[in-house]
Write a structure and sequence with these properties.
The chain is α+β, with helices and mostly antiparallel strands and about 200 residues long. The protein is about 30% helix and about 35% strand. The protein has one domain. It has a five-stranded antiparallel beta sheet, with helices on one face. Strands 10-11-12 form a three-stranded antiparallel beta sheet, with helices on one face. Strands 1-2 form a two-stranded antiparallel sheet.
């Protein structure tokens, strides 16, 4: 009889109190752990978006400052010509790629050598067009004329831009300073676009 009682006691399993205690302890452990994982995943996505935007801004800053520094078209007599436009009549470098935000042009000395004699001819004009192409800011580069040489994405989450020149942007004398105020679209925890000013200074 004692053996039967001992066997029944050994096969009794968990009591209700033990089961409830286990459920409560698991809840205490799992709930904060679940919240931590959700916060980690959310922060990871936001951080990745910010790093991508920061990378875009660094590239855009490098290209923009160099393009503005080069800006300045001169004719064969060395006279300055219009070199910056916020709107242009087609065809122009980047026309057809998207809506124009800013077009910058510059000229380089162009020479020909005949019989050992070097003479200057009409300067070769290069252009860089900043265009809004399907929600991304692109830089379209043309080496001479309007034929595209390269098309580089400057900002993937592009929400818009405004251009500010220290003088008239499209005047005959190019502005000394050009500012491109970018708006980076809302992503992740950002509820409003981030403003990013790109500032370039002409060296010619």
């Amino acid at each position: 009889m004692n053996r039967i009682r001992k066997r029944l006691a050994a096969d009794g399993g968990y009591t209700l109190i033990e089961l409830l205690s286990t459920v409560i302890i698991l809840g205490i452990i799992v709930l904060p752990l679940g919240n931590f994982m959700l916060a980690y995943l959310q922060n990871s996505t936001d951080t990745r978006d910010r790093i991508a935007d920061s990378h875009d801004i660094q590239i855009a800053t490098a290209y923009f400052s160099e393009d503005v520094a080069n800006m300045g078209v001169r004719d064969s007599s060395g006279n300055l010509q219009a070199s910056a436009w916020t709107s242009a009549t087609s065809p122009y470098c980047g026309s057809g790629a998207g809506s124009l935000v800013l077009l910058l042009s510059w000229s380089a000395v162009n020479t020909t050598t005949v019989g050992g004699v070097t003479t200057e001819t009409t300067p070769k004009v290069s252009s860089a067009a900043y265009v809004n192409e399907s929600g991304a800011l692109h830089r379209v580069y043309c080496d001479s004329g309007n034929s595209t040489v390269s098309d580089t994405t400057m900002a993937h989450n592009f929400a818009g831009a405004t251009v500010v020149c220290d003088t008239t942007c499209s005047g005959v004398t190019p502005p000394a300073t050009v500012t491109l105020n970018l708006s980076i679209a809302s992503t992740g925890d950002r509820t409003a676009p981030d403003p990013v000013p790109l500032i370039g200074h002409r060296r010619k």
